[in-house]
Amino acid sequence: AKYLFIAAQAADTPSTHETRLFFKYILERIDFERDMHFQTCTTIDTLDYSGYALNEGSKVIIAAAGDKKRTLCKNVNPNLKQNINSVTWVSDGILAIEMEDFISYENASSEIEKLVLNLEPIDTSDIGIIVICNDSEFLAKDWNNFLWATFTRSDPSKDIYGIGSQYINKHWGCKGPIIIDARTKPHHAPILQENEKALEAIEHFFQKGQPLEGF
């Protein structure tokens, strides 16, 4: 797994199959300075195209346990809207910010450094994840859109940033929240889109009396 989220097995821990509740549980408890563990320059799945070369990239383990540390936001802080354009609430403690297309990692680092400077004066203690994306409305429209776009379009060691980030004894952490740059990158495969002509050509196979009826 490129992103592995681990929680203690407690009486109130949601099932991992309830992904939205599980994320909420993790984000309420994570210590951003302690609980993120990166594996860099390692092997990744061939089908994952977010790394810098075939079968090469990074992974992160996010482990959370213990008492609830924060109450997550259920909307966008008005102060945040004054400082940041195109910010959208996705789910409890998760926001999406739409930015210009990704050009390079050097440029992205500069862009996100400016974003962090804008965020620092604002109380972000109720936010767990900020996702930088190409289309914030798409990300927020459906939970599966968030999961797909955020975690397939990012390489943990290159695309995770954070407010108040620092290294201590080779361990990366931040004050929080974390920022994930999930914009499409030049080395990503093209976006898979439905072909309307192809759909029209096969549609009759699914009609009553045809071989694929009921599918």
Automatic annotation (TrEMBL):
This protein's species is Pseudopedobacter saltans
Does the UniProt entry include the keyword Metal-binding? no
Q: Domain 3-octaprenyl-4-hydroxybenzoate carboxy-lyase-like C-terminal spans what residues? A: 14-64
The protein's matches in PANTHER family, at most eight in alphabetical order, are given as: 3-OCTAPRENYL-4-HYDROXYBENZOATE CARBOXY-LYASE-RELATED, 3-POLYPRENYL-4-HYDROXYBENZOATE DECARBOXYLASE
What is this protein identified as? 3-octaprenyl-4-hydroxybenzoate carboxy-lyase
Annotated Pfam families: UbiD_C
Asked if the keyword Lyase belongs to this entry, the reply reads: yes
Q: Which UniProt keywords are present, listed alphabetically?
A: Lyase
**What cellular component GO annotations does this protein have?**
cytoplasm
GO molecular function annotation: carboxy-lyase activity
